[in-house]
Amino acid sequence: MTKHITGLHHVTAISGPPQANVDFFTKLMDQRLVKKTVNFDDPGTYHLYYGNQTADPGTILTFFPFVGAAPGRPGPGMASAYAYSVGEGAFADVVADMRNRGGRISDPEERFGQQVATVTDPDGASVELVAEPGNHGPAEGGFHSTTLWLDDLGATQRLLVDHMGYEEAGHDADDGAERLRLRAPGDARGTVVDLYRRDGAARGVQGSGTIHHVAFRAMDDADQLDWRERMMAAGMQVTPVIDRQYFNAIYFREPGGVLFEIATDPPGFTRDEPLETLGEALKLPDQYEPIRDRIEQALPRLSA
Asked: By C-alpha distance, which of 77, 21, 78 is closest to 49?
């Protein structure tokens, strides 16, 4: 079998003020805040990580919350949505419960034979819920998929299928729009990538309420280096390996303009705090520990 990506590792997005972001994801979406750290390139800004109770790859959603961020606009050249897996048996109750708790959530619609509902986050971004077999709720299910909005599907499709091992799993076209579903083999979390196109769409603009990048899983450092070689052989301009404290990362822009990352599973989020207290303390990379006091004074106060 051709080597294939296992699934999503994490998705990273941009938000406005952090407290509204924390409240939405920990209270309405029932996610756990599993790491509270800073943007490595801008230590005056948080980097917040949400996931399931054990912070497993395939459940991790991260945010750069900028207090004064201008609103963005999803469009071609960026990932435009991510979706959590919700058990079919729990789906109707989850949707009703979120609505009863004040969530802005759409009526479910069908997509490739599955029920999908869209929750709007405080910055206007779409958070999708997809009904899948099982009885888990969104916190336990982790990711189902991400959607890449493109001007043309062809080159991205070829990269994902020919070089990353995805397989075509459905196609739908109607009223000047089309959606192509690709799925990685196996039963890991987040195996689905949807490629979306719509006639006349304006280019996306990065800002609050948009997705910054999508990260795929590498099992370990050796696996990541193999993927790096494969992506360069496919014509991608790939960064060197970058230490992100909780995983190592490589980055490249796929042909449609979306920023891709391939991140290692280890060392994981318990490398600097125990599982029981994940996300409670501000964790800093070593280079910022000498200015911890200054960073803590600059960051907005957060209440979980």
From this structure: 21
